[in-house]
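User: Just a sanity check before I run the rest of the batch. Below are the structure tokens for the first item. I only need the designed sequence back.
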């Protein structure tokens, strides 16, 4: 398979991300001897400055960290909780898409410090310096920024607080974008640590501007959870994913279902059919069980049990598509993902988001911080495991993964943005790399499918048998065969799939191969 980009191979360390400025900043930290977590904090902060539609200090972050020397893995869950007033009674007309009442407590900054405390080498002030420079002195507007402004001009014009982003609605390529308020907030964090965001000046402004919707107690009580990742065997690998409330459980269940089929030996249409059907079953289980595990027991072990997986796999008709008839939240797909490996062989799989484009479109006065609208990921149905409640975390699409050999050595690290499409893309990445023996760049460039639920009666939900969208680079015979199996296939543009993957493989001699998706502005680089 011919690719648009070449594989980047590095012997010491490397990074693949969705934005070139973040890649270069992270690479400089690695060159100075920083750890993968150090470089991740730098990339995370820079991305918040230069890609504000995707992620920001007011959003969340999740990562899986691999420690090479001990061959152990750890999940950092930076999911924010609902504030003290977020009850179902508070939203008689539904949870708003924009404004401060659509936001949860931000978890990104807390994740920086939780990860740095365990695996950081360089001072936080050093790590945030590139982002501070880009915020205060400015960065040049690129083509994706221009497109986002064109697509969301009405949103940007309707919310005065977004003026703090420093992006004029008539922005041109190369215009310098400055965010002095954000630079000051980043300096507060660099000087005062975690308290520079969850306390002091910034916290006071968050509480004041929100009219008390967020309280000082809400901010002070937030914490990043550090816990073992989920794990499931796929072929001769162990895939490690994010525990609930992330829907990383969906990816593991999909893989366990797929592991029962000789996918490499099947025609493309049959392989795609089986993977789509596995996706449907895993999402059905997601709706039945997924919520905040601190509020209800989520029987992940039962979902991954061999007997249960065999029983569920038997429900798949190898030649006929099943109707889904499931309702899913209409998730935001604007997120950013990156992978970093350092000179010790440690790696981080990192994803962060403010949910929908430009999140809540709310920025507390004087902070330069754009907040998420993740509260809309809750259900108002009292019977739902994901029903809203103060202090509770919503079911979350953000998930990052890495795969190890059976002896614990690192094999792959990968991920993508894309809302509910994330776990579908990650499934295809692993099948392409492991079963079809594609190299990392081929795997991220291969034509992809996404099974989407059709719009339902509620504005914030999707339901129905679903549409199977496939990039039109696939052979026509595959489309015909899938339609014959009952799939409602819709062709989309050659690179129109709702994801932008980054993928790293550890090669047999210990070097690192990186693939970066041409569906975004990103790139890979190494030292």
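Assistant: Here's the designed sequence for the first item:
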């Amino acid at each position: 398979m011919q690719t648009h980009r070449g594989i980047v191979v590095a012997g010491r360390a490397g990074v693949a991300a969705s934005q070139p400025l973040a890649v270069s900043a992270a690479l400089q930290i690695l060159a100075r001897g920083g750890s993968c977590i150090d470089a991740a904090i730098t990339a995370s902060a820079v991305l918040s400055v230069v890609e504000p539609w995707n992620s920001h200090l007011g959003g969340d972050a999740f990562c899986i960290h691999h420690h090479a020397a001990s061959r152990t893995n750890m999940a950092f869950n930076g999911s924010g909780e609902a504030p003290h007033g977020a009850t179902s009674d508070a939203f008689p007309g539904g949870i708003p898409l924009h404004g401060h009442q659509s936001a949860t407590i931000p978890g990104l900054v807390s994740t920086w410090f939780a990860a740095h405390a365990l695996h950081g080498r360089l001072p936080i002030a050093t790590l945030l310096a590139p982002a501070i420079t880009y915020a205060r002195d400015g960065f040049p507007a690129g083509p994706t920024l221009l497109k986002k402004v064109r697509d969301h001009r009405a949103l940007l014009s309707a919310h005065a607080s977004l003026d703090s982003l420093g992006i004029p609605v008539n922005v041109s390529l190369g215009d310098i974008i400055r965010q002095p308020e954000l630079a000051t907030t980043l300096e507060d964090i660099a000087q005062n640590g975690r308290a520079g965001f969850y306390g002091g000046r910034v916290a006071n402004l968050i509480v004041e501007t929100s009219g008390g919707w967020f309280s000082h107690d809400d901010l002070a009580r937030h914490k990043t959870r550090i816990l073992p990742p989920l794990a499931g065997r796929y072929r001769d690998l162990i895939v490690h994913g994010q525990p609930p409330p992330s829907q990383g459980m969906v990816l593991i269940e999909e893989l366990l279902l797929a592991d029962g089929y000789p996918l490499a030996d099947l025609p493309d249409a049959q392989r795609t059919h089986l993977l789509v059907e596995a996706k449907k079953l895993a999402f059905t289980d997601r709706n039945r069980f997924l919520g905040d595990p601190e509020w209800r027991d989520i029987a992940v072990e039962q979902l991954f049990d061999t007997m249960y997986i065999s029983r569920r796999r038997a429900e798949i008709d190898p030649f006929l598509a099943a109707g889904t008839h499931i309702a899913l939240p209409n998730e935001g797909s604007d997120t950013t993902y990156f992978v970093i490996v350092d000179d010790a062989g440690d790696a981080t799989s990192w994803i962060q988001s403010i949910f929908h484009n430009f999140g809540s479109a709310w920025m507390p006065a004087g902070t330069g911080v754009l907040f998420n609208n993740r509260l809309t990921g809750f259900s108002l149905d009292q019977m739902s495991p994901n029903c809203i409640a103060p202090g509770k975390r919503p079911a979350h699409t953000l998930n990052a993964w890495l795969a190890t050999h059976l002896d614990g050595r690192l094999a792959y690290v990968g991920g993508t943005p894309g809302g509910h499409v994330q776990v579908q893309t990650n499934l295809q990445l692993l099948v392409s790399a492991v079963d079809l023996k594609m190299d990392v760049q081929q795997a991220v460039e291969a034509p992809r499918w996404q099974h989407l639920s059709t719009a339902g009666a509620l504005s914030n939900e999707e339901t129905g048998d679903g549409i199977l969208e496939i990039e039109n680079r696939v052979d026509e015979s595959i489309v015909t065969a899938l339609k014959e199996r009952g799939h409602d296939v819709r062709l989309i543009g050659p690179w129109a799939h709702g994801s932008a993957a980054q993928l790293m493989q550890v090669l047999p001699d210990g070097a690192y191969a990186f693939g970066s998706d041409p569906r975004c502005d990103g790139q890979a680089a190494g030292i």
